[in-house]
Specification:
This protein is of the alpha+beta class. It has helices at residues 2-27, 59-64, 82-96, 99-104, 106-115, 152-162, 169-175, 183-191, 196-220, 303-321, 328-333, 363-376, and strands at 31-40, 43-52, 69-75, 79-80, 120-121, 125-130, 136-140, 143-148, 242-245, 249-253, 337-346, 351-358, 390-401.
C-alpha cells in the first residue's frame, strides 16, 4: 500500500515537473542578444536587434534552437523604399538557403514580402517574431500585418542576418554579442520610437486597405477557376552560394496567408523598455491615405514569380564566383571583408551598371568586387518567366582567408 502511494506521489511530481518545463517557453522573457546597424552608400538605413530566450554568440545554436525569437528593425533613414527592402530579404534568403528550401517556403516568403508594403519612415519599428502557438507574426509599430503558420520560416529569414552570408560580417558579429551591448548603442536603439499619431494613421490606412482587398477578392472569385495555374521552371538543387578557393583564401560570392492587418499584436516581455511617452518626431506619415508605398501596385510577389527570381539569383551568384580573384596585395596583408555590389543586367545578361553600396575597409577588395562583376558579363540571360527589361540584384562578395 505504501509503495502504491509513493508511486502515485512520484507520478504527480513528475507530472508537475513536466508541466513546469513545458510552460517555460510560455513565460520566459526574451533577452536582447545584439544590435547591429545597416548602411548603404555610407548612410545608415536602420538599426536591427535580435531577441532570444537563451543568449548566445553561436549563430548555429540560435538558428537551430526551438525557442521564441524576435527580430526588430528600427528605421533611421528618412525612408526605406519598400521595393528595395523586400529585395534585401528575398536575396538574403536565396543566398543562404538551398533550392529545396526556397521551393518549400516560396509561398511563405511571398506572403511575407507582400505584408511589407508600408512606407517605412524614420522611427518606425518592424517586428518579426517566432512564437510557439501563433506562428511567425509580422508587425509594424505594434500593429499586426500578418501571420505565417510555419515557425521554421523565421529561422529561414534569420539566416539573412546571421547565416553564412549575412548583410556584412560586422552586422552578424554585432547581433551575436550574447547580450554584451555597448551602453551608447543600447540607449540610441531605445530612443527610436514612433508617435501615437503615426500608429493611428497606420491603423486607419490598413483598415481601408483590408476592406478594399476583401471587396476585390469577392469580385474576382467568380472567374478565379478559369485562370491557368502558374508554373515554376525546373532547375537544379545545388547551393546558391558559389565559392572560389585559392591556396590561402576562400571567397564566397553572394548576391500561410496574411491575417487581418489591423489587429493589435500581443505584446511579449522585452529585454528593455521605456515608460517615457514617445517623443514628437519629424518625417512621420500621418495621412491615412499615404500609408502604402507607391511602387506596390507593380511589385507584389506571387510564389511562382518570387521563386523564379530566387533560382535565377542563385545561378547569378554561382556564375560570379568563378570570376573572383583574391588580390595578391590583400593576401600579403591578410585583408578580409565583405563588399556589397548593386548590379543591373539587361535581358541578355549584359551588365548595365555595377555600384558598391557597402564597401569593406580595404580599397583593393572593393576594386576587385566590381572588376569581378565586369569580368562575369554577360551573365546567363533572364528567363522568360521574369518580366521586365532588366534585372537588379545585390551581390555580397565575401573575402575571407582560411584559418
Amino acid at each position: 500500500m505504501y509503495l502504491s502511494i509513493s508511486v502515485k506521489r512520484l507520478l504527480a511530481c513528475a507530472t508537475m515537473l513536466a508541466c513546469l518545463l513545458l510552460s517555460h517557453h510560455a513565460i520566459a522573457a526574451m533577452n536582447l542578444n545584439g544590435i547591429a546597424s545597416h548602411t548603404e552608400f555610407g548612410n545608415e538605413q536602420y538599426m536591427a536587434a535580435l531577441y532570444v530566450e537563451d543568449l548566445s554568440a553561436d549563430a548555429r545554436q540560435i538558428l537551430l534552437s526551438n525557442q521564441r525569437k524576435r527580430m526588430e528593425i528600427k528605421v533611421v533613414a528618412d525612408r526605406l523604399f519598400s521595393r528595395k527592402f523586400k529585395r534585401q530579404w528575398v536575396e538574403g534568403v536565396a543566398i543562404n538557403a538551398g533550392n529545396a528550401e526556397l521551393k518549400k517556403h516560396a509561398q511563405n516568403l511571398a506572403n511575407f514580402s507582400n505584408m511589407i508594403k508600408i512606407k517605412l519612415v524614420k522611427n518606425d519599428t518592424l517586428t518579426i517574431e517566432r512564437t510557439f502557438r501563433r506562428g511567425v507574426e509580422v508587425s509594424i509599430n505594434g500593429i499586426l500585418l500578418g501571420t505565417i503558420e510555419d515557425v521554421s520560416f523565421f529561422d529561414l529569414i534569420l539566416r539573412s542576418w546571421i547565416g553564412p552570408v549575412p548583410l556584412s560580417t560586422e552586422f552578424k558579429s554585432e547581433l551575436l554579442r550574447a547580450g554584451s551591448i555597448e551602453p551608447q548603442t543600447l540607449a540610441r536603439f531605445e530612443e527610436i520610437r514612433t508617435t501615437r499619431e503615426r500608429v493611428a494613421a497606420l491603423n486607419a490606412g490598413l483598415s481601408k486597405e483590408a476592406a478594399g482587398a476583401a471587396l476585390a477578392t469577392a469580385t474576382a472569385a467568380a472567374g478565379a477557376s478559369d485562370q491557368p495555374s502558374e508554373e515554376v521552371p525546373e532547375t537544379d538543387d545545388s547551393s546558391p552560394v558559389a565559392a572560389t578557393d585559392s591556396a590561402t583564401s576562400s571567397i564566397a560570392t553572394t548576391s500561410s496567408s496574411s491575417s487581418a492587418p489591423v489587429a493589435v499584436a500581443e505584446e511579449e516581455p522585452a529585454a528593455s523598455s521605456s515608460s517615457q511617452p514617445p517623443a514628437v518626431v519629424e518625417n512621420q506619415i500621418l495621412d491615412e491615405s499615404d500609408v502604402f508605398d507607391d511602387e506596390e501596385d507593380e511589385f507584389s510577389y506571387t510564389a511562382a514569380d518570387l521563386l523564379s527570381r530566387q533560382l535565377y539569383l542563385s545561378k547569378l551568384t554561382r556564375w560570379t564566383g568563378s570570376y573572383i580573384k583574391y588580390p595578391k596585395s590583400s593576401l600579403r596583408r591578410g585583408e578580409q571583408g565583405t563588399v556589397r555590389v548593386s548590379v543591373i543586367i539587361d535581358r541578355k545578361g549584359q551588365v548595365q551598371s555595377a555600384e558598391i553600396i557597402q564597401d569593406s575597409d580595404h580599397k583593393a577588395l572593393n576594386r576587385e568586387a566590381v572588376k569581378a562583376v565586369q569580368r562575369a558579363s554577360p551573365y546567363p540571360a533572364m528567363p522568360e518567366v521574369i518580366a521586365g527589361e532588366s534585372f537588379e540584384f545585390t551581390l555580397p562578395v565575401v573575402f575571407a582567408l582560411r584559418d
